[in-house]
Design goal:
Chain A: InterPro entries: Brnchd-chn_aa_trnsp_AzlD (IPR008407). Chain A: Keywords: Membrane, Transmembrane, Transmembrane helix. The complex is a heterodimer of chains A (107) and B (240). Chain A is extended and about 50 Å long. By secondary structure, chain A is mostly helical. Chain A has five helices and two strands; from the N terminus they run αααββαα. Chain B is built from 13 helices and no strands. Chain B folds into two domains: 15-191, no CATH class; 192-240, no CATH class. In chain B, α3 runs parallel beside α5 (61-72) and α3 packs parallel to α10. The chains are: A mainly alpha (107), B mainly alpha (240). The interface between A and B is large, with 73 and 95 residues.
């Protein structure tokens, strides 16, 4: 349970660079009224960022060619179907984890 | 009629406790990734105190994992800090999306909302937003603090007992995060109406193509950031 001054400083540096991007927009929009086109653009961010994060997990860019990460794709399909059917966050997470456990342990 | 709706809305202000409750479905993700981080931290020669400090001060899953990787590799401090910055830059977009709905609260509270924003709480918040078109401060605090405390506890416990934990991969727990993003994506598309849904599905198609191309020459976190900027712009240009 120890650390060094140097390590604490590195962690504080990392904390600062993750904190500023998170709070800067909150400060800005209090003082500047965003133009309509920016607000329309921002309306697309949730679906874009969530789909980007999902797609990132479905591709494998380790090799020479970018390929599908088949294990994740196989778990993704039932997870997506359950999400569409139930529209429930908790059920989807549980089914996703169980599906992945089955794939990893029985294939 | 409209006045009536407004009155009803102010009566049903979402409480801190409701925020805690809405956070619960995401906790499996935080707990499994947090435990995994604790284990990785220990194997990367970090002390439990350092793991605790990282989860309290940096509070960002992907950045913390990359921190371990770079630290073990003996990367210079500048590289560690710059990489952490880039990995978390997508939070700018997330904060910009959420912030306009919370300007009625004080600066201090807004700093609080921003400080505790993560991929997951962002996902839950925008889902709430797509359903009800507004966000309440107390609800945000309930959501954020529940996630934050769970994350700190999970990382620290992972560091303390990591050696005795079963392999999280074998249990499929690492997939909790992806499953959560899938569910949040679907929940964000549920209420948009037929025409808009087609538009969004086309954008997701674009996203797949652009992510694929970018992945050839960019690390995943940068591909996510840049693809999001490009596809949101396509969204604005192609909307009717």
């Amino acid at each position: 349970m120890t650390t060094t001054v140097a390590m604490v400083l590195i962690i504080l540096g990392c904390a600062l660079v993750t904190w500023l991007p998170r709070i800067f927009p909150f400060m800005l929009v209090r003082n500047v009224k965003l133009p309509n086109i920016v607000l329309r653009w921002l309306a697309y961010i949730p679906v874009c960022i969530l789909s980007a994060l999902v797609i990132e997990s479905l591709i494998n860019s380790e090799g020479k060619f970018v390929t599908l990460n088949w294990v994740n794709v196989c778990a993704f399909i039932p997870t997506l179907l359950v999400a569409i059917k139930t529209k429930s966050l908790s059920i989807t997470v549980v089914i996703g984890v169980v599906t992945m456990a089955i794939i990893r342990n029985f294939t | 009629m409209e006045i009536q709706t407004k009155v009803d809305q102010s009566i049903h202000e979402h409480t801190f406790f409701q925020g805690v409750k809405d956070c619960l479905p995401t906790l499996l993700g935080y707990i499994s990734i947090g435990l995994a981080f604790g284990v990785i931290g220990i194997t990367s020669n970090l002390s439990v105190l350092e793991i605790f400090l990282l989860s309290v001060l940096v509070y960002a899953g992907s950045a913390q994992f990359i921190f371990c990787g770079l630290y073990v590799a003996g990367a210079p401090v500048s590289v560690i800090i710059i990489t952490t910055f880039i990995v978390n830059l997508r939070h700018v977009l997330m904060s910009f999306t959420v912030a306009p709905h919370l300007t009625r609260y004080s600066s201090l509270r807004n700093i609080g909302f921003g400080t505790l924003l993560t991929d997951e709480t962002f996902g839950v918040a925008v889902t709430k937003l797509s359903k009800e078109n507004r966000l309440d401060g107390n609800w945000m605090d309930g959501l954020n603090l529940t996630a934050y405390l769970t994350w700190i506890a999970s990382c620290t416990i992972g560091g303390l007992v990591g050696k005795w934990l079963p392999d999280a991969q074998g249990l499929g727990l690492d997939f909790a995060l992806v499953a959560m993003f899938v569910a949040l994506l679907v929940l964000n598309l549920v209420d948009v109406g037929k025409n808009k849904l087609m538009h969004y599905l086309k954008l997701i198609g674009w996203m797949a193509i652009i992510m694929y191309i970018l992945s050839y020459f960019l690390p995943g976190h940068l591909a996510v950031l840049i693809a999001t900027v490009i596809v949101a712009s396509i969204g604005v240009v192609t909307e009717k």
